Amino acid sequence: MWPELIGPIATGLAGLVAAIAGLLTVRSQRISAQLEECRRELEATEAEGEDYRGVALLALRHIFRLETMLANRGVSPPARPDGLRV
């Protein structure tokens, strides 16, 4: 009786091991693809942040020049918002 069952049991176990290995491989590839996508999004976000930082710096320089021009003409510039006070 046992010799008749050993073949199907071994085949079933081999199929189960192959299925688990396949699932782990697919999962690993999916995680790698998601990780690469996250890296690209991070790089794009960092580049966008640098752009915004540059624009903000230009705006602050412009504000400072305007304040200086107003002060030179004897006009007191409006108070800066709390977030811009140094």
Give me the secondary-structure category. Answer: mainly alpha
User: Any low-confidence stretches, pLDDT <50, length ≥5?
Assistant: none
- Give the topology string: H per helix, E per strand: H
Helix content: over 70%
What portion of residues belong to β-strands? under 5%
How many domains, as an integer?
A: 1
Radius of gyration: 33 Å
The profile of the biggest β sheet is: none
Average pLDDT confidence is 85
Compute the number of strand runs: 0
The number of helices is 1
> What is the distance, rounded to the nearest whole angstrom, between the alpha carbons of the first and last residues?
89 Å
Shape: rod-shaped
Give your account of this protein's structure.
The chain has 86 residues and is mainly α. The protein has one domain (11-74). 83% of the residues lie in helices and 0% in strands. It contains one helix and no strands. The longest helix is centred in the middle third of the chain and has 71 residues, at 2-72. The relative contact order is 0.05. The mean pLDDT is 85.
